[in-house]
Automatic annotation (TrEMBL):
Name this polypeptide is given: Glycosyl transferase family 2
Positions of the Glycosyltransferase 2-like domain: 149-257
A family per Pfam: Glycos_transf_2
Keywords, in A-Z order: Transferase
InterPro entries registered for this protein in UniProt: Glyco_trans_2-like, Nucleotide-diphossugar_trans
A GO molecular-function annotation: transferase activity
Length: 371
């Protein structure tokens, strides 16, 4: 794996741990887990050996040791779940945010029920740790601006989509919205309320979806292009997390795992975990694709198709020598309804069959920060 930082990355994070917690203790001037010393800084082999664990319970040295904190920061950057009920004062003084994060999580065993959230809370904790540690280490800071492209046939969803986009944090952005069969006058109010630069294009209603998206992308003024779906939900760190994943992986295209689905007719939320995250992949959720403009143009853009335009782009990027990385999908929820409202029409029963978790109502991860 090629990364753009000397720190360990979340690559290889395990959603469902096979082993319970272990103790990370400071002994004879070094950290040990079960008598096995950790390298300074932690190496990929150290992190890989910790992946099966539910987490690590930290036993800090009583007095300040800079090297001890550096190792813990490296483990946090790798997304290793860390916990300690009462970090010593010197840790709270040195890195108050990290100390607070470590103290905020208590490991719980997953009971195997469809509505269990133990593994989900563990992964949310991991995401918070990695965000803080990587950015504190200079990874994923000074983020490049992004052009977000969206094609829509549904004027009633445009306001929803732009509100999701408007709440993105830490990223400069512009929006290019391609209207696929209705006039711009129907979304005038939603556009007027959008706080970032926005361009609205009235596309040929008979053009395939992929061609419409390419029409929008051709108007990009930044070096990074992200795709946005009009009816889905996005957390406020969605774009920042994708750019962070691009920074620590070195991938040309990043996206999230398609994990959370809101089944609107059933008023139920499901989570599927058969698509692993923090891996090199050939598939990501289409509504989360983010890539450099240069590789986008080399690949020929989205496939000029009515369906499958995302998969066409993924294959074309790989054919052009680009690599695809899939990060966590906790800040993204796909909406699924019935009828012709979607470009892919899997029955709702399919999502129930593949669900690892099911909840009544709209139940996203807390990372979505749903209002």
């Amino acid at each position: 794996m090629t990364v753009t930082t000397g720190m360990c990355s979340p690559y290889g994070f395990t959603r469902s741990p096979a082993e319970e917690t272990a103790t990370l203790s400071w002994s004879d001037g070094r950290w040990e887990v079960g008598g096995r010393p950790l390298a300074v800084p932690p190496q990929a082999a150290d992190v890989a050996a910790l992946r099966p664990l539910r987490g690590l319970v930290l036993e800090w040295p009583e007095r300040p040791v800079a090297e001890a904190l550096d190792v813990v920061a490296g483990l946090a950057a790798a997304g290793v779940p860390l916990t300690c009920q009462d970090p010593p004062g010197w840790v709270r003084d040195a890195d108050p945010a990290l100390a607070a994060l470590i103290a905020a999580w208590t490991p719980e065993a997953d009971d195997g029920r469809p509505d269990s959230v133990a593994d989900l809370r563990r992964e949310e904790h991991s995401v918070r740790l990695r965000r803080h540690a990587l950015r504190s280490g200079g990874v994923g800071t000074g983020l490049a601006p992004v052009t977000v492209v969206m094609a829509t046939r549904r004027p009633h969803y445009v306001g929803h989509a732009l509100r999701q986009l408007a709440r993105q944090r830490g990223v400069g952005l512009e929006a290019i919205v391609a209207l696929h069969g209705f006039p711009a006058a129907r979304i005038r109010e939603a556009v007027a309320e959008f706080p970032h630069p926005i361009t609205v294009v009235e596309a040929d209603p008979d053009a395939p979806l992929g061609a419409v998206l390419n029409t929008a992308a051709a108007r990009a003024s930044t070096g990074i292009i992200a795709k946005w779906d009009d009816d889905d939900w996005y957390g406020p760190e969605h774009l920042a997390d994708l750019l962070l994943a691009m920074a620590y992986s070195g991938a040309e295209l990043v996206g999230t795992a398609p994990e959370f689905f809101y089944l609107q007719p059933l008023h139920a939320t499901i989570r599927r975990v058969d698509y692993s995250s923090e891996v090199w992949a050939d598939h990501v959720a289409g509504g989360t694709i983010l890539l450099g403009r240069e590789i986008f143009e080399q690949a020929g853009g989205f496939g000029p198709l009515g369906r499958g335009e995302d998969a066409h782009l993924l294959r074309a990027v790989e054919a052009a020598g680009g690599r695809v990385y899939r990060t966590h999908g906790l800040g993204y929820v796909l909406r699924r309804s019935v009828g012709a409202d979607h470009t892919w029409n899997l029955p709702l029963a399919h999502f129930l069959r593949v669900a690892a978790n099911q909840w009544r109502g709209f139940r996203p991860s807390v990372m979505l920060e749903a209002p």
